[in-house]
Amino acid sequence: MSESIVNVLYFSVFPQIVVSGTSFGRTEQVLTLVPDKNFASAFFPEEVDTYIQVFQNRQGHLVGGHVAGYDFAKEPASGGRFYVRALQHVE
Fold it and tell me: Tell me: the pLDDT tens digits for 29-65?
């Protein structure tokens, strides 16, 4: 029987500007997970649930191999904003 591991990660939004190829100058924001709360984004109350929902809707594309799934929780940040903690379940 394999041991279950939980990685604690946090949502972070990074701006991204493409500087090569045919997409030069294309600009977008990327939602990703980071292992350190110091790099986490603090979300406003009216947007935090949307970011969680987007990740939940897309997590099927991030499950596989040893990753079995994710759980999410909001954590208070300063100024009435929230961090999103993601528990990544690995088997």
Answer: 999 999 999 999 999 999 999 999 999 999 889 888 8
**What DSSP string describes 21-81?**
GGGTT-EEEEEEEES-GGGPPPBPHHHHHHHHHHHHHHGGGT-BTTEEEEEEEEEE-GGG-
45 vs 81: CA distance, rounded Å: 6
pLDDT at position 74, please?
97
CB 59 within 8 A of CB 69: yes
What pLDDT is stored for residue 2 in this prediction? 59
Round to whole Å and give the CA distance between 46 and 34: 22
CA 57 to chain centroid, in Å, comes to 12
Distance (Å, rounded) from C-alpha 22 to C-alpha 20? 7
